[in-house]
Amino acid sequence: MLFIILLTVLSSVLLYIILKPNNYWKKRNVLQVGDIMYKFMISKLSMPEICRAICDKHEVEAIGTSTGTVQTLLLKNTQDIQAVLTGEFQKFHSRGFLINPNDILANNLLFINDFQKWKIIRQKLTPVFTSARLKNMFYIMDRCARDFVDLVDDNQHLKKKPYTLVYTYTTAAIGASVFGIDTQAKSTMNSPYVAMMWKALTPTLKANLILLTANVFPDLYKLFKLRTLGDYEKQFIGIMKTVMESRKHDTQKRHDFIEICLELKKQGLLKDTTSGYELEPSDEMLAAQAFFFFAAGADTSATVMHFALTELASNPDILARLHKEIDEVFEANKTDEITYDDLDKLQYLDMIISESMRKYPPVGILQRICTRDSVVLPSGVTVEKDVVCIIPVMAIQRNEKNYPDPEVFDPERFAPENVSNIKKYTYLPFGEGNRHCLGGRFSRVQIKVGMARLLRRFTLTPQKLQPIAFEKSAFGLRAADIFYDLKLRDF
């Protein structure tokens, strides 16, 4: 009932805003287009596609628009993007997502706007993703990759839904990396977190309404005390508390995230030595960081793998070269083993993953909100306080000025001899600057070992595949209905 009322109110208010004259950007000599949230609501397109269409249509460096009541600026100039993400970070540190204090998980995520709180959590979590930590954690991801291949082999029903397969792998692998491997379970793919994360992260009308309200009508968001992750709060925090309690006196080194959480709790208050800001490492705060692993990694990593496999089915020559590289690594070991160090030898696979993220960025737009009175960007555009800047990642990475023949899947763009030709701030799958994605390295390891083991045993039936349409998502690019045929290889 609440969401019927909310939808009615939102529709009425948004219609009023659209019909009301808005000359905010015109008065500032910036090209102005219609409200992008209205376009999102009435179309079947994702927001990254909407932003790309606008950017492709207008040959200017910045485009003024709005998202409901919020003045918004689309940035295409790389110097402006650098200023927002890096150079003027203190003025653009916030992602601009409104969160209610009663939304315990969301209010403690790395997405939070509270700069001091974000900074100290970021400081404490950064060591989780060092090469040394990932090397120690690799046995978990490799075990999950083995079980993933067995799942593909055994489950004919899931083979008809390949996105569900790769999503099961990425979610289960993150679950095992957070909570450790359940030694009683026959397979790590039998993870209790897969269904929960699928429900939490799949774009829905309810999720889009809450996001819309938080970003466009903040007063309504506060009035209704809406929560973005409230449906999963009790269950997830309960799991974290149970697991941490059971592991308090465990002396075995597991190298998972729970082990790191227990170390943080032993340290007591987290303190920023620069500002003196202190934060209690509560179960709720740590549970939010664990949830962040899933929220930021499960869907995005699955999307990268899914589109990479889609393109490999469409490009048999690229697939054949990749098979050769993978086979050489396994055969050099003379076993069915692959090590963390072996991943560095899979250079062509790395190029394929990079090109997949270029053509299909799992996060198709980034946003930052101006927190100071005004900032003059390098292009000369003035950004006032509370204006949201959108970096249209999909538009930038599919712009022919940045990438010739952008619709062509070409891993050679990321060959060692060609990487230096890529312009700074035109490749942003993990963002850039101080708020770049912490889990980028983890994600790449997870994807590489999963694809290496999958394509060691399986190949793809050649077929021309292209997404007809992406799902209606506010930030990501998703096309879960694409089917590619995985079949056992003949050695």
UniProtKB/TrEMBL annotation:
Keyword Oxidoreductase in record: yes
Gene: LOC113492978
Pfam families: p450
Gene Ontology cellular-component annotations: endoplasmic reticulum membrane
Reported cofactor(s): heme
Organism: Trichoplusia ni (Cabbage looper)
CDD domains linked to this entry: CYP6-like
PROSITE patterns the record matches: CYTOCHROME_P450 (PS00086)
Database matches in InterPro entries: Cyt_P450, Cyt_P450_CS, Cyt_P450_E_grp-I, Cyt_P450_sf, Insect_CytP450_Detox
Sequence similarity: Belongs to the cytochrome P450 family.
Reactions catalysed: an organic molecule + reduced [NADPH--hemoprotein reductase] + O2 = an alcohol + oxidized [NADPH--hemoprotein reductase] + H2O + H(+)
Locations listed in the record: Endoplasmic reticulum membrane; Microsome membrane
Keywords of the record: Endoplasmic reticulum, Heme, Iron, Membrane, Metal-binding, Microsome, Monooxygenase, Oxidoreductase
Membrane topology: Peripheral membrane protein
Protein name: unspecific monooxygenase
Function: May be involved in the metabolism of insect hormones and in the breakdown of synthetic insecticides.
GO terms for MF: heme binding; iron ion binding; oxidoreductase activity, acting on paired donors, with incorporation or reduction of molecular oxygen, reduced flavin or flavoprotein as one donor, and incorporation of one atom of oxygen
PANTHER family associated with the record: CYTOCHROME P450, CYTOCHROME P450 28A5-RELATED
EC number: 1.14.14.1
Residue positions binding heme: 437
NADP is among the record's keywords: no
